[in-house]
Amino acid sequence: MSSQSDSDTPTRTAIRDRHRETAAAVLPEHTDLYVGGEFVTPDAGGTFDTVDPTTGEVLASVARGRESDVDRAVDAAWDAFEKTWSGYSAGRRQRVLTTIADTIEEHTDELARLETLDNGKPVSEAKIDVRGAAEQFRYFAGIVRENPGETMTAGSRYGQVVSEPYGVVGQIIPWNFPLLMASWKLAPALAAGNCTVLKPAEQTPLSALRLAELIDDIVPTGVVNVVTGYGEEAGSALTSNPDVRKLAFTGSTAVGKQVMKSAADSVTDVTLELGGKSPVVVFPDVSVRKAVALVESAIFYNTGECCEAGSRLFVHDDVADEVLDGLIAAVEDTTIGDPLDEATDLGPKVSREQVERTTDYLDSAREQGGQFLVGGDRPDDEHLADGCFVEPTLIEGLAHDADAVQAEIFGPVLTVFRWDDYDEMIDLANDVDYGLAGGVITDDITRANRTARDIEAGYVWINSYHDLVPGLPFGGYKQSGIGRELSADTLDHYRQTKTINLSLR
Ligand code: NAD
Fold first, then answer.
1. Are β-strands 434-435 and 477-478 bridged in parallel, bridged antiparallel, or unpaired?
2. Which of 84, 248, 309, 327 has CB 3.0 to 4.6 Å from 220, enough for a Cys bridge?
């Protein structure tokens, strides 16, 4: 692992210097709460640090929003809804969304580097996130006018069915794709005509704050509010605020359950995009090269910190040895390093806490009889010593009910199973609490379709992975969530239906 030749490898000091320089160039100017179109300090004061996971250095101290700050932001959002946003036509909202998309694109390089500093993802992948974020705004700008409503006559009645925005929505996002998740939330909410209070993850608040700076002149005052802070403080205050009419949450299943319980008190509608433990099924007819490339990307993209990561491999006996040899070779060829370097394949995990979470699962896999085909540790290279790095890892030989197989590790760890009986394989593939995604790799279209139908998940890729196309709904079965993002259905999650029944007598 780490294919950089020794002479190319930057020293610890060089990495730190480069990160400091980049931070000086791209950090947002404001690290306060963005409420009512202004950057304001929290009522009770206070900050928390966001740390660069590559160097361990503090990037910025960010405002620690709490309940009264959330209340303020919700009030500002209602004010904006009543005074301006509810009066905007769909065409005007479309222009706003398109301008946001253009602005994000214009700042691609800067936003990508900021995301890399705060999250640790390779800058090449961060650029894909930024382009995806712009694409979200463009997609919802495109469909914003599609709200025809319905009319019907029935005897002496004339009925109109119209969709109306909720007014103010609360949106909570995770740290793995900070800017992308912000755009998945903001774009449909604004398109549907809502104002919003967004709470970014405490590990990665910076790109949402920079986005707030960038859209300040584009979006009317108070339409978008950003309250940074801890989940148990700002997050839970948002989920229990009775003036928030709709909650949209992306994060872990454990917290998603709490959000749902909290929303029950005020019977607030909730959509949840939660965790996953997705199977990837390899059939024997497929080219080994293709299978290796797809499986590698399914698990190791974004350092394994993907809700849809293909983290359980089911490879047919006939090709298992070849596919696993290919994967081991691919892992050995992976460049682990400074994520600001375009040549880096795998960056650090987002935080020390997440490193511990992953290494605890590696320990449990060892105790429960897992054989480590490659990886399984933290890299011992001197130049990576400051960062939250974990080796890409393949584990075989675990029982399917082992902890590392059942739990979402959210790291670069693939558990491997060989199969020859299709029905037994599918039973195992579905034998987890999650149902977010899955992958099928075969050139036989009938098999591919049958397997895609048999996998209990909201999204199944055939011969690709991770590529999410606006327009195709994304969301989970089982404990992976409720609701769909990325598609026209999403607008419906941000609107409520009103029937107007007019008597013609
Ligand atoms: P998390 O659940 O710990 O935190 C997510 C967000 O919830 C953060 O902003 C956090 O501050 C907030 N939060 C924490 N406790 C809260 C509480 N009591 N009330 C309200 N908000 C609270 O998740 P994470 O570790 O940031 O992200 C990783 C998880 O996100 C993984 O499980 C991953 O699968 C999931 N995820 C899902 C999708 C999807 O589309 N399904 C996409 C990305 C990430």
1. antiparallel
2. 84
DSSP string, 475-504: --EETTEES-BSSHHHHHHTEEEEEEEEE-
CA distance 229 to 252: 17
If you ran DSSP here, which 8-state letter would residue 8 be given? G
* Mean pLDDT calculated for residue range 71-94: 98
- Cα 505 to ligand 1 centre (Å): 54
What is the CATH class of 12-274+482-498? alpha beta
The CATH fold assigned to 279-469 is Aldehyde Dehydrogenase; Chain A, domain 2 (3.40.309)
**pLDDT tens for each residue of 271-326:** 999 999 999 999 999 999 999 999 999 999 999 999 999 999 999 999 999 999 99
**If DSSP codes are grouped into helix, strand and coil, which group holds residue 269?**
strand
**CA distances in angstroms from 328 to 105, 148, 222, 273, 354, listed in the order given:** 37, 54, 51, 32, 24
CA of residue 376 relative to chain centroid, distance = 25
Structure tokens that stand for 333 in this block? 């060829």
Please give the pLDDT value at position 3.
Answer: 43
Burial of residue 348 (CB within 10 Å: 0-12, 13-18, 19+) is buried
Report the alpha-carbon distance of residue 138 to residue 130 in Å, rounded: 13
Secondary-structure breakdown of the chain: helix, strand, coil percentages, each rounded to the nearest 5: 40, 20, 35
Identify whether the C-beta of residue 247 lies closer than 8 Å to the C-beta of residue 263: yes
Spell out the domain ranges in the chain. Answer: 12-274+482-498, 279-469
pLDDT of residue 391: 98
Q: Which residues are marked as active site?
A: 273
What is the three-class DSSP state of 229? coil
- Adjacent-strand bridge partners of 482: 272
Taking CA atoms only, the protein residue closest to ligand 1 atom 42 is: 307
The alpha carbon of 250 and the centre of ligand 1 are apart by a number of angstroms equal to 5
Query: Above 50 in pLDDT, residue 182?
Result: yes
For residues 418-428, average pLDDT? 98
Q: What is the rounded CA–CA span in Å between residue 294 and residue 83?
A: 50
Q: How many residues does the chain have?
A: 505
Please, which pLDDT band fits residue 153 given cuts at 50, 70 and 90?
very high
Query: Is the beta carbon of 250 within 6 A of some atom in ligand 1?
Result: yes
Q: Is the CB of residue 168 less than 8 Å from the CB of residue 195?
A: yes
Phi first, then psi: what are they for 190, rounded to 5°? -70, -40
The DSSP code for 232 is: I
Cβ of 184 closer than 6 Å to ligand 1, yes or no, is no
